[in-house]
Amino acid sequence: MQPARKIRIGIDVGGTFTHAVAIDAASLELTGTAKVPTTHRAAEGVARGVIDALAQLMQRHAITRDQIALIAHSTTQATNALLEGDVAPVGILGMGPSRSAWIASAQTCIPPIPLTPHRRLLIHHRFLRSHLATPERIDALLRALREAGARVIVAAEAFSVDDPRREQLVCERAAEMGLPATATHHVSRLHGLRTRTRTAVINAAMISRMLDTADMTERAVRDAGISAPLMIMRSDGGVMDVAEMRRRPILTMLSGPAAGVAAALLHAGVSDGIFLEVGGTSTDVSVIRNGRCQIRSAELGGRKLHLETLDVRTVGVAGGSLVELARPGAIASVGPRSAHIAGLPYLCFSRLATESLQSAIYETPDDRSRRVCARVGDTLLAITPTCAANVVGLVPPDDPAAGDGKTAAGGFDRLAPTLGFASGSALADAILRAAARRVGELVRGLIRDYRLDPALVRLVGGGGGASAIVPAVARELGLPFENARHADVISAIGVALALLRDSVERTVVSPSDEDIRRIRSEAFDSVLRMGAAPETIQVFVEVDTRRNLLRATAEGATDIHRPDGESERSGAADSIESTVRASFGPAATNIVRGRVAAGFELWTADLRPTGLLCWLRRARTAIRIVDRAGRIRWASNSAGWTASTCTRAPTDVLALAERHTRYSDAGATIPRCFALADGRVVDLSGLCDATQVSEVLRWELQRIGGGDDCLLLVENA
């Protein structure tokens, strides 16, 4: 008897449309899609669109309630609340010890935060010395804050990360008065009272709106008889349950691009590359390195928050960008104004006869630049990179950006002479090059900032406009590229596949093994409580000695399915070898399939130095790790490795790290360390001491049998 199918549902709330997808939980293949307009103006807000998209998806693809294993959705509510200034006035009850009361009072007194040119987040402040924090005095100050206009409360005490009892008492007293409240230790366990308070203020300001949306969505799902877990996308690329979102809604802020990056990792199988999610108005660019997305601290109003988000950089160039002419025969710019904002149809999607087409100029009172358009009668048609890509044949027939190539080509041929170009293809090529230059600048910046090896960089495109932009950027930079399958719904797929995730941070000077063990256990337990299967949980520990920061990030799946490539091998051996050889590049020699162990294949090659003074430089060992699905999961052009077992690995990694440690006047620098075991890549690269690497690896391998194979890898810094 065949087991009943299980479906993971992902819903991505975009600016124009809300996309829903159904993913088979066993094969992780896309089995259905649905799309509805995003309901910004509905009484229920965007929650109405989430519910409508879910209902349409279930009806269209005959999905029953008992087949749904999980529902996850992204949300724009937090970001929109800040962008629109739709937030509640906040009251801060600051506390601190008598000996430093004036410092604590100053650091918890946050000035109004600008949200829009005309709106600010209003903040009221009262202060209480910690030893006087009785229920009666707390109640009196809470009433004063409410009378001043506060509608939500922040409890902010110096050193509450070490002793949160008084902050918790303030939250309890506020709840009894009917005031929603949050505490600074809820949003961060880092020292730095001012930044922690500012982060808690943002969290508190959006609580009411986020709770309304969460309650509405959850109620609709439960009323429909669906008992599957309901998850919400986080800004760092993971998902969390509704209970955690109610406590920390700020974690959904700036989460728009996170779903696409999650899909690049889990659906497209990108382990190293630059992901470009191309929409109609903008392109989001992010780095994936060693199978991990890159994280940065969020900012608001030029001030840092204790909030980790994906490092996603956005440029106002995309598939629907309008074109500005500098002079006949020269493109001045592509974007940031788009056909979507201007309300103009694309030339390549029109069905109008182009014989009577003429060039025209589109301009608006708030934008003095003159955008090139086409005119047929009284109808203006946008000239966009998507149109240009259709003209030069970059868009596959079944691609979401595929339009009427003949119409586009005919229109460009008629427009070209009037705009100073020799042919329609020359006009199209000039548009694509101008668009690629702007996006390429962002890509170059990421390569430089993260010190990526250009020989390992590949571009991966997602979003409905990927075929219009990504091939042109790849040509501009001389890099390989591919566009992900189902690019138009890539973000919804990412929501469905995203792992449960949480991060725990502490301010610790010279952390001990016990400090690391404790924070690792806390992060593990957090995602376990959310519903992650313990077999799937992995923890990444990072020690930042410059900031005295200790961080543990745990992620895991909601079922025992491993979303890391344990499906059947996707290609023949000769095809995999061809992929690996192409990844090594033409300079590689002595390419060898070195070992099959721990659920992976290890390939090595020698890279000989070239160019001037090459005789002064040593040859390097390049390594590629291929998983059971035939995908390259780890790559380095300057690495080392050794075979081990799960029993010996904590000792063997010390010897391997020592062989690759570099010494200078500044001290010893250990290589970035990794381990392969039981089909997983254990990332130890966030640790800066070899003994820490050994101990963390020991904990990670405890559940695996002592005789199991383990491969140890190091990447030279």
Total DSSP helices: 20
CATH domain class name of the largest domain: Alpha Beta
Helix and strand composition category: alpha+beta
Task: Please give the domain count.
Answer: 5
CATH topology label of the largest domain = Nucleotidyltransferase, domain 5
Q: What does the largest sheet look like?
A: 6 strands, mixed
Instruction: Look at the structure and give the mean pLDDT.
Output: 86
Proportion of residues in β-strands? 25-35%
The percent range for helix content is 25-40%
> C-alpha Rg, in Å?
27 Å
Q: Would you report the number of β strands?
A: 38
Query: Which regions are unreliable across 5 or more consecutive residues at pLDDT < 50?
Result: 562-569
Main sheet: which strands, in order across?
A: 3-2-1-4-11-12
Termini Cα gap: 53 Å
Looking at the overall shape, the CATH architecture of the largest domain is 2-Layer Sandwich
Write structural notes for this entry:
- The chain has 717 residues and is α+β, with helices and mostly antiparallel strands.
- It folds into 5 domains: 1-87 and 206-256, ATPase, nucleotide binding domain (Nucleotidyltransferase, domain 5), CATH 3.30.420.40; 88-197, Rossmann fold (3-Layer(aba) Sandwich); 267-495, Nucleotidyltransferase, domain 5; 499-556; 573-715, no CATH class.
- The protein is 32% helix and 32% strand.
- The chain has 20 helices and 38 strands.
- The strands form 10 sheets. The protein has a 6-stranded mixed β-sheet.
- A hairpin with a 2-residue loop joins strand 29 (588-597) and strand 30 (600-607).
- It starts with 6 loop residues before the first strand and ends with a strand.
- Residues 562-569 have low confidence and may be disordered.
